[in-house]
Each structure stands twice: as structure tokens, then as C-alpha cells.
Write a structure and sequence with these properties.
Helix content of chain A: 40-55%
Oligomer: heterodimer
Shape of chain B: globular
Radius of gyration of chain A: 20 Å
CATH topology of chain B: Rossmann fold
Strand order of the largest sheet of chain B: 3-4-2-1-7-8-9
Number of strands of chain A: 10
Largest interface: A-B, 24 and 27 residues
Radius of gyration of chain B: 14 Å
Structural class of chain B: alpha/beta
Number of strands of chain B: 9
CATH architecture of chain B: 3-Layer(aba) Sandwich
CATH class of chain B: Alpha Beta
Strand content of chain A: 15-25%
Number of domains of chain B: 1
Number of helices of chain A: 9
Largest sheet of chain B: 7 strands, parallel
Order of helices and strands of chain B: EHEHEEEEHEHEHEH
CATH class of the largest domain in chain A: Alpha Beta
Bound molecules: S-adenosylmethionine
Order of helices and strands of chain A: HHHHHEHEHEHEEEEHEEE
Distance between the termini of chain A: 35 Å
CATH topology of the largest domain in chain A: Rossmann fold
């Protein structure tokens, strides 16, 4: 038997442990990058192979949480891909004003940078008082971190540059408090944000929304999970509501539930066709 | 018998890559996937650098897209490009590897796992060692490894790192690389 086969089995066992013991199901995730991250965990914990990680993950909840956090890739940035946010500011948020109710659902919060980016835009476009904003993630640990809204200041210069490139209209620094080498968001300047646990693999739509932001989450899913997630978005969005995906993500052409608003920036719109109902979930 | 060509480069690699794509032409039978270290935010303009009449067209890879001939697909700025089982592209925003995202190692290692002997891996000019481990992975799984000769590299750190780590099949100039790639058609 080759080493590769062994690693596959070990990965399977580890994923089984995370699911059965902690309720996190990564089985349907895109394999190539998942395996890479599991190998990085082997290095990080200085064990010989994935099998050696298994007993620690099973018995030590803190190690398990560290693995889960690493595997969920909490990488985010303020106004990553500025042209996208420029478009949201100029076209998308103004278009939302025609809806009598505006619920904005941001999915996959990472450490919250994208979450607050959306909140800043709503405020600067004068929609903060009208819109309700909900952010969800599979990982309660990340939701708590995002809610706290505190980050190393290291990347702050990049974030400010992104904000300006995305057409920011005020002083970006006014949204933050600097303490030592950290920055924290001044949440009182923004509208309230609801942080809620929600898993795109197992949970369904729970609220009618008019704008869904789900960027750099679908790239981590295999086909079946991607299709399922799109079904959830389709059932949540009011007809005519907007969906924003990551710049490397897309919806297969010809899905009648979606029309493309801006192909390069990955802006889609919910048509009046019924959302695909997922069977077997 | 080959199924995919992967290419990696950074500083000084644009010129040889242009010559390569111009020579391979649009009807080249093998799919090509590439990682270049580009400044974050390099948008659509980047792939246009390689456009010329008759050349193999370029595009940014889209997540879970089927790998097919007729184009060279680049990793989009700030995403790692990987090859998934079933010969499809996958992207990730995982942490930088060797301080870079996209990383050449990430593409080459994942491609080696899926394509094994059916892979051709090529490194051009580059200013860092990212790509060397990837070449080693390709070699280990029986794929063909080609490095651009140091005297044709504007920056030879990449070739140097590759040669130190891997007993490559070819370390030759761009004309020979073109002939080799045309020969496998
Ligand atoms: C790479 S981050 C993206 C952060 C942010 N959207 C951005 O693009 O800057 C991916 C996020 O998706 C979350 N995630 C992963 N699997 C999920 C699932 N099944 N349901 C909901 N969120 C998930 C992760 O916990 C992580 O916070």
C-alpha cells in the first residue's frame, strides 16, 4: 500500500473525529486545500503524521478547536478587492433602497474585517438606520473574535488603502481606536450587527434577505456543498435581491434562479424562478 | 500521455512566458496552468500582457472549473491555485506559503498528486525559491521537470533553488523549452 493511501485514511479518520466529537463536518470540502491544511497541522503540532494527531484531537478540546479554527481559514481583510466594494457603494446599496425592508446577510465572517467593511458602507451610504445586518459563521470562536473586532495593526495601512481605493468618503481611521500594536473597531459608530452561528452544510435559510455577501467560502466547498449553499441563498433572498460572491467564485451559467449583474465582480441577482430544492439534506 | 503543463515564475519571467505562449499557439493540445507572483490588485490587465496574435490565450482560473486545453490559466492575484481530483482547478485564500500567495509550490505539489507522471513542470526566471519544493514533488511522482537555464534568467534565484533541490530532466534555454513542449504534442 502506498503512503498516499495511508494519508487518505488518516485524513478520513481525523475528519470523522471532528464530526462525531465536535459536530464540524468538513467531509464535503474541497480536498486539495483541506489536505494541505491538515498537513500543516501535523507540522504545527510537531507530530509524525495525521494519525498521531487523532488521539490529541479526540481528547483535548483546545487542540481540537485550534485545528477547527485553522481548517476553517479565518483569513479576511477590510475591503479586499476594492473595485468590488466600489461597485457595492455606487450601485448595489443604492439599488437596495427600493426594497421596503433591507436585511443584509454576510456569511463567513473570518475575524470580522469583511463584516465591518459592509457595515461601514451601509453607514456611508445612509442605509444604516434602515438595514438590519446579520453575520453568520460555522465557527462560534470566530464569531466571538469578529464581534470583539480587534486585530493586529500590521495590515492597517493596506486596509486604509483598500478603503480609499473603494471610494471611501470619510477618514477610515475614525472607525478605529489604536492601542499599542492593535486596532479595534468603534462599533458605536456603526449599526448593530447580529453575530449568529449558522452552518451552510447543515442549516437552511432562516430569514428573508435582500443582500447576501458570501465571499471566499464557496471555494472551500466541493460541488455538492456549493450547490446546497446556492440553494440556501436562493431560498433566503427576496426575488430581485442581490448576491455577492468572491472574485474567484461563480454560479454555473444557465441556472434559472440567478441572473448575472456584473460578471467580473461576481454580482448576481435572484430571479423569479423557484430556488432549487435540495433533496437528500 | 501528458495531461497538464504547470509553469511558475516571478521577476523576469514575463518575457520568456510571452515567447512560450506565442510559440505554443492556440491549438496546443495540453492545458497550461501558471502561477506568477504579481503585486496584489493586479487585475485583468495582467493576462493581457501575454496576448499576441495566434498565441495561446490566457485567463484567470475560476474555482472548480474543468481543466481543458486551448488556454493558459493563471492563479488570480492573492489566491493560491490548486489542482483538485477530477482534474479541476481550485482556489484558496489560505495563508501565504514562502511569504507569497499564490505560491508556485502549492500549484506544483497539488498538480503532482493528481497528474503524477502525466505532468510537465516548468520554472522560468524568479527572484525567490518558491517553486523548488514543488519541482521536487513533481520529480518524485515521475513528472517531467524543466528549468530555464540561469544564463537566460533575469533573476536566477528560482532556477538556482530548483537545481539545488532537484535533479531536473532539462535545464535549458527558452528555445529548447519551446521545442520540448511542442514535441510532446
Ligand atoms: C476565508 S474566510 C472568508 C472571510 C470573508 N468572507 C472574506 O472573504 O474576507 C472563510 C470563512 O468561512 C467560514 N466557513 C467555513 N465553512 C463554513 C460553513 N460550512 N458555514 C458557514 N461558514 C463557514 C469560516 O469559518 C471562515 O470564517
Amino acid at each position: 500500500m502506498s503512503a498516499r493511501d495511508l494519508e487518505d485514511i488518516e485524513a478520513e479518520l481525523l475528519l470523522l473525529a471532528l464530526r462525531e466529537r465536535y459536530g464540524y463536518d468538513f467531509a464535503g470540502y474541497a480536498r486539495a486545500s483541506l489536505i494541505r491544511r491538515l498537513r500543516q497541522m501535523v507540522e504545527f503540532f510537531a507530530v509524525a503524521d495525521l494519525a498521531d494527531l487523532l488521539p490529541i484531537v479526540l481528547r483535548n478540546e483546545r487542540v481540537a478547536q485550534a485545528v477547527i479554527n485553522f481548517v476553517s481559514v479565518p483569513v479576511s481583510e477590510f475591503f479586499r478587492d476594492p473595485p468590488v466594494w466600489g461597485y457595492v457603494r455606487e450601485h448595489l446599496i443604492p439599488a437596495l433602497e427600493s426594497f421596503p425592508r433591507i436585511n443584509v446577510w454576510q456569511i463567513g465572517c473570518g475575524h470580522g474585517q469583511e463584516t465591518y467593511s459592509v457595515a461601514i458602507l451601509l453607514r456611508e451610504c445612509g442605509l444604516a438606520h434602515k438595514a438590519r445586518m446579520i453575520t453568520t459563521d460555522i465557527n462560534a470562536d470566530l464569531l466571538a473574535t469578529a464581534k470583539r473586532g480587534r486585530w493586529p495593526a500590521e495590515q492597517f495601512g493596506q486596509w486604509r488603502a483598500n478603503y480609499l481605493a473603494a471610494g471611501g468618503t470619510t477618514d477610515f481611521d475614525d472607525y478605529f481606536e489604536h492601542t499599542g500594536d492593535e486596532v479595534s473597531i468603534r462599533a458605536d459608530r456603526l449599526q448593530p450587527i447580529e453575530f449568529v452561528e449558522h452552518n451552510l452544510v447543515t442549516d437552511d435559510a432562516f430569514l428573508e434577505t435582500q443582500f447576501i455577501v458570501c465571499r471566499n467560502v464557496l471555494i472551500y466547498f466541493g460541488d455538492a456543498l456549493q450547490a446546497r449553499a446556492l440553494g440556501v441563498f436562493g431560498r433566503s433572498l427576496e426575488r430581485g435581491g442581490y448576491l455577492l460572491l468572491g472574485t474567484a467564485e461563480s454560479i454555473l451559467d444557465g441556472d434559472p434562479a440567478w441572473s448575472t449583474v456584473q460578471p467580473e465582480l461576481r454580482v448576481f441577482r435572484r430571479t423569479t424562478a423557484p430556488a432549487v430544492t435540495c433533496t437528500g439534506w | 500521455m501528458y495531461g497538464l503543463v504547470v509553469v511558475g515564475f516571478s521577476a523576469g519571467g514575463i518575457e520568456p512566458m510571452r515567447s512560450l505562449l506565442a510559440a505554443l499557439r492556440a491549438d496546443y493540445p495540453l492545458p497550461v496552468a501558471a502561477v506568477a507572483h504579481l503585486p496584489p490588485g493586479s487585475g485583468a490587465g495582467f493576462t493581457a500582457l501575454f496576448a499576441s496574435a495566434g498565441a495561446l490565450p490566457t485567463a484567470f482560473a475560476v474555482d472548480k472549473e474543468a481543466i481543458r486545453p486551448g488556454r493558459a490559466c493563471f492563479a488570480p492575484a492573492d489566491y493560491h491555485l490548486l489542482i483538485e481530483n477530477g482534474e479541476r482547478f481550485a482556489l484558496s485564500v489560505d495563508q501565504p506559503v514562502n511569504f507569497v500567495r499564490p505560491s508556485i509550490d502549492v500549484l506544483f505539489e497539488s498538480a503532482a498528486e493528481v497528474y503524477g507522471k502525466r505532468l510537465i513542470a516548468l520554472t522560468l526566471s524568479g527572484a525567490s525559491s518558491d517553486g523548488a519544493k514543488g519541482m521536487a514533488a513533481v520529480r518524485k511522482r515521475g513528472g517531467m521537470t524543466i528549468a530555464l537555464a540561469p544564463d537566460e534568467c533575469v533573476r536566477s534565484s528560482l532556477t538556482d533553488a530548483v537545481l539545488k533541490l532537484v535533479d531536473v530532466d532539462y535545464c535549458v534555454g527558452i528555445d529548447e523549452i519551446i521545442a520540448l513542449l511542442q514535441g510532446v504534442r
